[in-house]
Amino acid sequence: MPEETGCTGTVVVAVGGNSIIDPKGRRGNLDTHDLARELCEQIASLAGRYGSVVLTHGNGPQVGFELLRNEAAKDVVPPDGMDVNVAATQGYIGYLLQQVLGDVLEERNEEVPICSLVTQVEVDPDDPGFQNPTKPVGPFYSAEEAAKLASERGWRMREDAGRGHRRVVPSPRPLKILELPSVRNLVHSGQIVICTGGGGIPVVRRGKRFEGVAAVIDKDLASALLASGLGARDFVISTGVPEVYVNFGRPDQRALRSIRAEELRKLRADGHFAAGSMLPKIDASLDFIDKGGSRVVITSPESILSSLDGGTGTTIVP
């Protein structure tokens, strides 16, 4: 790992699945490598600042696409379970990030090994999230399209933060990252680790064995659990906006720049953050701080470095 320049310890960076799909929804004319490039430039720079870097990623759009492929091909090949879809997206998103990040480091003449790790996360089989699906997956639909899909396919549909309607699936809370000891070993050996993709493959314990379940765990909550388990100093959540806002989308919208956890908890209680959008990020931030974390930064992918330097972003401290 390169010499540290200003920061010590571990940083965990959670990036949204939307970061590596075309924001305009086009198909076939935009290279996903190009979309990942800016993010990987930021991550590569973090490798020179911190003792270790761990990268997690969302998969909301991608796992939704996998579910659509399953539906379209069900008369030709047997459909996979949702847990297998999560595993598949962990694999190909991890591959993409590992390849592009490796290219960036090689261009900088920096030799830092990178490893993508397929990761399972234990959940409670009796978690109420199984009865109340909240995790948006796949593309956006109009209200009319959503109503038709709900009727024809039995999907649960929900309006997503003013951007359209999306399918929602169960999202139980993460309890334990099964591969955490392996992640620790990789971090201690000096590798950049890509893991816990899409919140991890959801599994439940049945006696002495684990089995996958139909759900998609929120990646920010799972990443906070990972960051705490690694004893990370800083936790970065990359999302589609440069800062967290109160009164979002209204004339009196206000960006939060630096805020203490106690004040943020009060804003959460007042209903300032939307479920399925910013609320899980706020909950993940508070979880990390409550378990001894030093700092959370929420910002856009291109602003990670400047936000850690205090130039932009929302910084949450104990």
List keywords for this structure.
disordered N terminus, 9 helices, 22% strand, 4-stranded mixed sheet, alpha/beta, 318 residues, 8-stranded mixed sheet, globular
Give the biggest sheet.
8 strands, mixed
What sequence of helices (H) and strands (E) makes up the elements?
EHEHHEEEHEEEHEEEHEEEEHHEHE
Helix content: 25-40%
Tell me what portion of residues adopts beta-strand conformation. Answer: 15-25%
Contiguous runs where pLDDT drops below 50 for at least 5 residues: 1-7, 25-30
Description of the structure:
The chain is an alpha/beta fold and 318 residues long. It has a domain at 133-169. It is 36% helix and 22% strand. A hairpin with a 5-residue loop joins strand 6 (157-159) and strand 7. Helix 7 runs antiparallel to helix 8 (279-290). Mean pLDDT is 90; it is low at 1-7 and 25-30.
Task: Compose a concise summary of this entry.
The chain has 318 residues and is α/β, with parallel strands linked by helices. It is 36% helix and 22% strand.
Strands, helices and their partners?
Layout: E1 10-15, H1 32-46, E2 52-57, H2 60-73, H3 82-107, E3 114-116, E4 120-122, E5 135-141, H4 143-153, E6 157-159, E7 165-169, E8 176-177, H5 180-188, E9 192-194, E10 201-206, E11 209-212, H6 219-230, E12 234-238, E13 244-246, E14 254-256, E15 258-260, H7 261-269, H8 279-290, E16 295-299, H9 304-308, E17 314-317
Parallel strand pairs: 1-2, 1-12, 2-9, 3-9, 4-10, 12-16, 15-17
Antiparallel strand pairs: 4-8, 5-7, 6-7, 10-11, 13-14, 16-17
Helix pairs in contact: 1-3, 2-3, 6-8, 7-8
